[in-house]
Amino acid sequence: MIEATLGNLRFFRRSGPYPLAVVASAARGVADKVELLLEGVAPLQTAGPSEVSFLDNRRYASALDQTLAGAVIVHPDMVSRVPRTAVSIVTSEPYVAWARVAALFHPVPPPSPGVHPSAIIADGAHVDPSTEVGPLSVVEAGAEIGPACRIGPGAVIGSGVIVGRDCRIGAHVTLSHAVLGARVYVYPGARIGQEGFGFASTRDGFLSVPQLGRVIVQDDVEVGANTTIDRGSSQDTVIGAGSRLDNLVQIGHNVVLGRCCVIVAQVGISGSTVLEDFVRVGGQAGITGHLRIGRGAEIGAQAGVMSDLVPGAKVVGSPAWPIKDFFRQIAVLSKLAKRQG
Questions:
Q1: Catalytic site residue 75?
Q2: What's the structural domain count of the chain?
Q3: pTM over 0.85
Q4: Which of 106, 126, 253, 290 is flagged as catalytic?
């Protein structure tokens, strides 16, 4: 029988146990001064007396009523619903607090410094002694890898690539023509820095245009599994600090993402488009080239964006329309269909 446990010890290291006061401090919340030792985290439905849980979505309030958790992270508005058997850890941002507490019990394992015997480190490459280089990985000449990084099995770090400190490069990742900042996580299978899709049309066919830019990945970026980021052709492709790219995202050459953008799975962004800070793009959306998407814009799933968007715009549909206009049209079409019926 397979045990259904959050943070199963077969796969996830666990630290602790921790006193309630330490857990509340990690959550940046407030709790009563109670002597309680907590051993881990779990959902409301399965948590036991020595575990911490949380409620962020009020739709699951019934699970809060019945939970056996020893402590529950909740919004002030929900404290009255917490059972007497549990201690409330009160915060205005329960989900953020949950992320911090989960990281307390399950911190990212530190690298194991050293180079695996099957890895290849070229002459002229620099790998900090505190970094872990996994089996069958390759670090080419002129590459620089900073302190406390982990380079996964089969990864290829191309010539001249710079990887900042505390980065995690997953299995079978390839990096070329790229500069990565600190604390960048690149998940397995991602490809960063390959040639972009650039060519000139001639009477005899196509002529490839040299792609002479780089990819600049700023601090605290995460790049999902099997995502591809093309290097620039005439300028650098830039992924802004704190941005999150899901799995299977395609970023074309010369694209610039601002800070803290969120790009969900299977999105494609064509070359030379600029996304300002805090833009969010839903799954399978497509954005054509040479556009400017304003700060804080939100693009719905499967939207097709073919023109610039002003800051704060919210669009859906293909071609993309402002969300209010889109649903107004749907309502009108629905009424017309009913009349025809």
A1: no
A2: 2
A3: yes
A4: 253
